Task: structure prediction
Amino acid sequence: MIKIAIKICLFLTLWLTISCNHGGVAIAATNNILQQPPTKIEVSLGNSNNDIKFFPNHLEFTAGKRYTLQLNNPSSLKHYFTAKDFTDGIWTQKIEAGKVEVKGAIHDVELKPGATAEWIFVPMKPGTYNLRCTIPGHSEAGMTGDIMIKS
Result:
Protein backbone atom coordinates (compact mmCIF):
# COMPACT_ATOMS: atom_id res chain seq x y z
CA MET A 1 0.00 0.00 0.00
CA ILE A 2 2.82 2.42 0.85
CA LYS A 3 4.63 1.63 -2.41
CA ILE A 4 1.46 2.47 -4.35
CA ALA A 5 1.08 5.77 -2.47
CA ILE A 6 4.70 6.69 -3.22
CA LYS A 7 4.22 5.88 -6.91
CA ILE A 8 1.07 8.03 -7.00
CA CYS A 9 2.91 10.97 -5.36
CA LEU A 10 5.78 10.66 -7.83
CA PHE A 11 3.34 10.48 -10.75
CA LEU A 12 1.46 13.56 -9.52
CA THR A 13 4.69 15.51 -9.07
CA LEU A 14 5.80 14.65 -12.60
CA TRP A 15 2.33 15.36 -14.01
CA LEU A 16 2.18 18.74 -12.29
CA THR A 17 5.66 19.58 -13.56
CA ILE A 18 4.71 18.78 -17.14
CA SER A 19 1.28 20.42 -16.93
CA CYS A 20 2.59 23.59 -15.34
CA ASN A 21 5.45 23.93 -17.78
CA HIS A 22 2.91 23.89 -20.61
CA GLY A 23 0.96 26.66 -18.88
CA GLY A 24 4.01 28.87 -18.47
CA VAL A 25 4.66 27.98 -14.84
CA ALA A 26 7.79 26.04 -13.99
CA ILE A 27 7.75 23.70 -11.02
CA ALA A 28 10.99 21.88 -10.26
CA ALA A 29 10.68 18.11 -10.60
CA THR A 30 12.19 17.70 -7.13
CA ASN A 31 9.50 19.85 -5.53
CA ASN A 32 6.89 17.52 -4.09
CA ILE A 33 3.82 19.73 -4.21
CA LEU A 34 1.95 17.47 -1.82
CA GLN A 35 4.54 18.17 0.88
CA GLN A 36 3.90 21.93 0.75
CA PRO A 37 1.84 23.17 3.68
CA PRO A 38 -1.30 24.65 2.09
CA THR A 39 -2.14 28.34 2.41
CA LYS A 40 -5.60 28.67 3.95
CA ILE A 41 -8.16 31.02 2.39
CA GLU A 42 -11.63 31.40 3.91
CA VAL A 43 -14.74 32.27 1.89
CA SER A 44 -18.28 32.68 3.21
CA LEU A 45 -21.19 32.06 0.88
CA GLY A 46 -23.65 34.57 2.26
CA ASN A 47 -23.79 35.59 5.92
CA SER A 48 -26.08 35.33 8.94
CA ASN A 49 -28.12 38.32 7.62
CA ASN A 50 -28.82 36.32 4.43
CA ASP A 51 -26.91 38.81 2.27
CA ILE A 52 -26.52 37.17 -1.13
CA LYS A 53 -22.77 37.75 -1.64
CA PHE A 54 -19.40 36.05 -1.41
CA PHE A 55 -17.20 37.26 1.46
CA PRO A 56 -14.63 38.06 0.06
CA ASN A 57 -15.67 38.24 -3.60
CA HIS A 58 -12.12 38.60 -4.97
CA LEU A 59 -9.66 35.73 -4.53
CA GLU A 60 -6.00 35.57 -5.58
CA PHE A 61 -3.83 32.49 -5.89
CA THR A 62 -0.33 31.81 -7.20
CA ALA A 63 0.17 29.02 -9.72
CA GLY A 64 2.11 26.06 -8.37
CA LYS A 65 1.28 26.70 -4.70
CA ARG A 66 -0.98 24.45 -2.62
CA TYR A 67 -4.12 25.96 -1.05
CA THR A 68 -6.93 25.03 1.28
CA LEU A 69 -10.11 26.90 0.40
CA GLN A 70 -12.34 26.82 3.47
CA LEU A 71 -15.92 27.38 2.28
CA ASN A 72 -18.74 28.00 4.72
CA ASN A 73 -22.38 28.99 4.47
CA PRO A 74 -23.60 30.79 7.60
CA SER A 75 -26.89 31.83 5.92
CA SER A 76 -30.27 30.09 5.95
CA LEU A 77 -30.15 29.76 2.13
CA LYS A 78 -28.22 27.25 0.04
CA HIS A 79 -25.53 28.63 -2.28
CA TYR A 80 -23.20 27.41 -5.03
CA PHE A 81 -19.52 28.17 -5.51
CA THR A 82 -19.35 27.96 -9.32
CA ALA A 83 -16.24 28.87 -11.32
CA LYS A 84 -15.90 26.33 -14.13
CA ASP A 85 -13.01 28.00 -15.98
CA PHE A 86 -11.13 28.36 -12.69
CA THR A 87 -11.69 24.72 -11.77
CA ASP A 88 -10.47 23.68 -15.23
CA GLY A 89 -7.21 25.50 -14.44
CA ILE A 90 -6.46 23.81 -11.10
CA TRP A 91 -5.57 20.36 -9.84
CA THR A 92 -7.93 19.32 -7.05
CA GLN A 93 -6.35 17.08 -4.45
CA LYS A 94 -9.64 16.66 -2.56
CA ILE A 95 -12.72 18.26 -1.09
CA GLU A 96 -13.79 17.26 2.40
CA ALA A 97 -17.27 17.92 3.73
CA GLY A 98 -18.46 16.18 6.86
CA LYS A 99 -17.32 12.59 6.66
CA VAL A 100 -17.09 12.64 2.86
CA GLU A 101 -13.98 13.17 0.76
CA VAL A 102 -14.40 13.89 -2.97
CA LYS A 103 -11.57 13.66 -5.50
CA GLY A 104 -11.33 14.40 -9.20
CA ALA A 105 -12.71 17.14 -11.42
CA ILE A 106 -15.02 19.53 -9.56
CA HIS A 107 -17.03 22.32 -11.22
CA ASP A 108 -19.61 23.31 -8.60
CA VAL A 109 -19.76 23.07 -4.84
CA GLU A 110 -23.20 23.39 -3.24
CA LEU A 111 -23.30 24.44 0.39
CA LYS A 112 -26.55 24.01 2.24
CA PRO A 113 -27.33 26.27 5.22
CA GLY A 114 -24.70 25.86 7.93
CA ALA A 115 -22.47 23.65 5.75
CA THR A 116 -18.69 23.82 5.44
CA ALA A 117 -16.28 22.28 2.95
CA GLU A 118 -12.51 22.19 2.70
CA TRP A 119 -11.10 22.22 -0.85
CA ILE A 120 -7.40 21.44 -1.26
CA PHE A 121 -5.96 22.27 -4.69
CA VAL A 122 -3.05 23.59 -6.72
CA PRO A 123 -3.69 26.38 -9.28
CA MET A 124 -1.94 25.71 -12.58
CA LYS A 125 -3.29 28.07 -15.27
CA PRO A 126 -2.77 31.81 -14.73
CA GLY A 127 -5.73 34.04 -15.57
CA THR A 128 -8.77 35.80 -14.17
CA TYR A 129 -11.93 33.76 -13.75
CA ASN A 130 -15.57 34.48 -12.91
CA LEU A 131 -17.16 33.25 -9.69
CA ARG A 132 -20.92 33.09 -9.19
CA CYS A 133 -23.76 31.38 -7.41
CA THR A 134 -25.90 29.64 -10.04
CA ILE A 135 -29.10 29.57 -8.00
CA PRO A 136 -31.67 31.63 -9.97
CA GLY A 137 -31.57 35.26 -8.86
CA HIS A 138 -28.42 34.99 -6.74
CA SER A 139 -25.94 36.22 -9.39
CA GLU A 140 -28.35 39.02 -10.28
CA ALA A 141 -28.54 39.97 -6.58
CA GLY A 142 -24.76 40.38 -6.46
CA MET A 143 -23.44 36.91 -5.62
CA THR A 144 -20.56 37.14 -8.06
CA GLY A 145 -16.84 37.61 -7.84
CA ASP A 146 -13.54 36.98 -9.54
CA ILE A 147 -10.63 34.65 -8.99
CA MET A 148 -7.12 35.48 -10.15
CA ILE A 149 -4.34 32.95 -10.60
CA LYS A 150 -0.97 34.70 -10.84
CA SER A 151 2.17 33.20 -12.38
About this structure: Confidence is low (pLDDT under 50) at residues 1-30. The longest strand covers residues 90-97.
